[in-house]
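Hey team,

Filing this mostly as a record. A colleague (T.K.) asked me to run one chain through the structure pipeline before their review meeting, and I want the input and output archived in the tracker in case anyone asks later how it was produced. No errors, nothing strange. Just documentation.

Input sequence:
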Amino acid sequence: MAMHFIFSDEVVLLFDFWSIHSPTGMALSVLVILLLAVLYESIKVGKARLLYQALMNLSIPTSQQLIEETDQDSSSSDSLPVSRSPLRWFLCHFGQSLLHVAQVVVGYFMMLAVMSYNTWIFFGVVLGSGVGYYLAYPLLNMT
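Output structure:
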């Protein structure tokens, strides 16, 4: 295996069954790697949006809101209000953890693909990252 970048249409990517032996196979593989890089950028944006939504939904109530809620609940029943914030926090954190695992897996797949030292695959990762950033980050509009 070469330890420098080469322009070739023959390479084995990630798994033994992903063996490329033709220019058409290389073009399809570069497209798959490009889409993988777009997915990576989309996952990053998804994590950021989920974090933002979690922070907005789990904002700490002011003391005046707590007094009003306690007064309303105590007039209707004798029990204290039950907060669902810990459950929401857990679900948001669990979702973020799953997205993080997906991001790590996709990131390592892209790194291993680049480590094939095939220049076309490298260009696919770089172009896919650029396209993914261009497409995904406007979706992050949190204003």
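Quick notes for T.K.: The first helix runs from residue 23 to 57. Confidence is low (pLDDT under 50) at residues 79-83.
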